[in-house]
Amino acid sequence: MSRHYRIPFLLLAVIALGSRAGAVETEGSGPADGPLTLWYTKPAAKWMEALPVGNGRLGAMVFGQPQKDRLQLNDVTVWSGGPQPDADRKDAYKNLPEIRRAIREGKYDLAERLCAKGFNSDAPYNASYQTLGDLAFDFALPAGEVRDYRRQLDLARAVAGVTFSAGGVRFTREVFASAPDGVLVERLAADRKGAIGFSMKLSRVERAKTRFEAPDTLVMAGDAGGALRYEARARVVAEGGTVTGDGDRLTVKDADAVTVLLTAATTYALDPDKKYEGGDLSVARTRMDAAAAKSYDALKAAHVADYRRYFDRVRLDLGPADASRPTDERLKAYHDRPDPSFAALFYQFGRYLLISSSRPDDPLPANLQGIWADGVKPPWNCDYHTNINVQMNYWAAEPANLSETHLPMLRLIQGLAGPGARTAKAYFGPDTPGWVLSYTTNAWGWTSPGKGMPWGVWFGGSGWMCQHLFEHYAFTRDKDYLRSVYPTMKGAAAFWLANLVEGADGKLITSPSTSPENSFITDSGMKSTVCEGATMDKSIVWDLLTNTAQAAAVLGVDEDFRKKVEAARDRIRPIQVGKAGQVEEWGGDWDLNSKDPHHRHVSHLFGLHPGHEISALGTPDLAAAARKTLELRGDDGTGWSLAWKVNFWARLHDGDHACRLMANQLRFTEQEKTIMAGAGGTYANLFDAHPPFQIDGNFGFVSGVDEMLLQSQERYVDPAAPGEDRYYVDVLPALPHAWADGSAKGLRARGGFEVDLSWRGGRLQAAAIRSVAGTACQVRYAGKTLPLSMKPGESVTLDGTLSR
Ligand code: FUC
């Protein structure tokens, strides 16, 4: 790992300090069959019913079939393909003047053709995240029917399992993925001695060879059809009985209990300078030897303690849970009879998924499916789409008190500045400073535009990604961390300083400019996807320049540069309100001409969420225009689109409308085909359905709930510390009527605060605010504002009138 990617020690120390503050109370973890358990009365018949476990890097889908069972395996680094340093179109920048001219002359259709011909990428975009393989079991069960079957996932402990009886024997299986020991563990037990017998096979659909390594291990090695090689090891630790093996399988007979261990390693490292190589395959063996030397109970205790350090920080109580009904039945009932406690379960499931797919030291962040994907060609290559999806994965990381889970994403972003500098020069000219990123990236540092329109030619990726770099600081207040990421932010800002163009009105805009994956029709009937000054671009650049200037001020560096950045920011064409009172999406008032008014992307409201240019209290006129835009877009969409709308309505302080979107998102579906509009929902295993499965909706929902209960995006200037970023902390800004009584513990706010809330009859009872970093803030609730100034570690408790 190069120095560039190392997590600064102080950052870890600050996070640890902050975490301790939130980890003192642990009673949030209920019993195994309590309100925080997903449970089912049947085994998973298909992947979308299986239950995910993961330690951030290594994951498995648990099917729980009594006889022929399967753990489908993933490692977050298993990617086909390899680096593509030549993916940028050579000399694309030479086409830029002609494209800009066509746009300025209103020849948008020509501009689109020119972009499709000379401003996209012509390199193949084939690299894909892939399965690691399968651990398949064929169990010898006593004759007789399977009875009393139950399959479950305990979110409080991150342990999945099944119990059932066959032939009078009670079988128990438990599965978890341990981060501290780097191992996937399955425990097989029964209430009769000698009852455990099975054959086990380790395999992969392609490019793998498995051999038996006596006395008890299967070793699978291979490649992913490109640069990457992997090794996976499965070992059985049997109590009693016999173990034999041959070829790609081993057999256990007459054991009293067995612990199955699985480890994996790959050659991947997130280091563009080393061509993304450097991972050590021998780690699979050393981890295995270390894990096999521990007892099952010791492995489990270490795993549970480690997981609870994260999970227990936030508790959410939205009312009594009816945990006596299986999870799929509760899901099926939700849309017609929303049950707040089920929304709370879905919220905690999202936090579980983030902890399980993104740990601080992971080499890559959570992708389109987190870490869980079957086969070698999952939808959209299971990559890191940067025009909404990967960012949505991390919206909840800070507010839901899982700050460390953000770190793999923050390292990915820093790793894009190098390849993105090449892309900037290829498309905007050899003298172009800084870096840029288009609509997607992957494990190999892809930053180029895509091949097709309308998704391919879009340059908002770098600005949006840099928001995450700043947000991590805004929540943690770690200036050493901010100093380490500032050059990446500065590079993204420098690119736009050099590439904003003056519009006909003298204001600064981007050109060419698209609005992710959407198209427009002008008043004269011209259809295109390319204009100048589309709203999302402007809002992303506004956000980037604001944050970069703020970072320079906080760090006390680059005064001249900061002034230039602020001056450019202030010259960006403001958000325009169109003839229906809506926020305009494009560089013209064309929204009402659209043939697809309910398009899933709502990119032009970036300034409302995740940005902070539009706010309910600070810019009421723009907030009203945003509301109109959402009404025009409607209440349906893909899974992630519904989740984004929950966040939008929360930012508009309309909790009831946010709840309506939640009910649409929590619509049971089995649809796995790709549907681009109106079919969003949730699968039986509570994975979000685009459809197909995309995990962004799960994470976006968590963020939506956080936004309903606590907001802190709106800034003010503190005369006592004018260079520092200061935030209003809005308590219960969008509490829906349906959540009349409840409490939340451990939510995080910008400025470095941790907040516990309780409410009754829809009114705040108490807000306990702890300051991690000793920053001032202004707390707002129900029309009142209370300035607070606290020392690090200090707490205050306020009542419903914001009195102490
Ligand atoms: C964006 C969205 C699609 C899908 C894809 C992975 O391109 O427009 O709906 O989520 O990412």
Task: Describe the structure using short key phrases.
29% helix; 18 helices; binds alpha-L-fucopyranose; 804 residues; alpha+beta; disordered N terminus; 7-stranded antiparallel β-sheet; 9-stranded antiparallel β-sheet
Q: Could you characterize the architecture of this molecule?
A:
The chain has 18 helices and 34 strands. The N terminus is likely disordered. The longest helix is centred in the middle third of the chain and has 21 residues. α11 crosses α13. It starts with 8 loop residues before the first helix and ends in a 5-residue tail after the last strand. With 804 residues, it is of the alpha+beta class. The strands form 8 sheets. A 9-stranded antiparallel sheet has the order 1-6-7-8-9-16-13-12-11, with helices on one face. β32 and β33 form a beta hairpin. 29% of the residues lie in helices and 23% in strands. The structure holds alpha-L-fucopyranose. The site of alpha-L-fucopyranose has 13 residues, from loops.
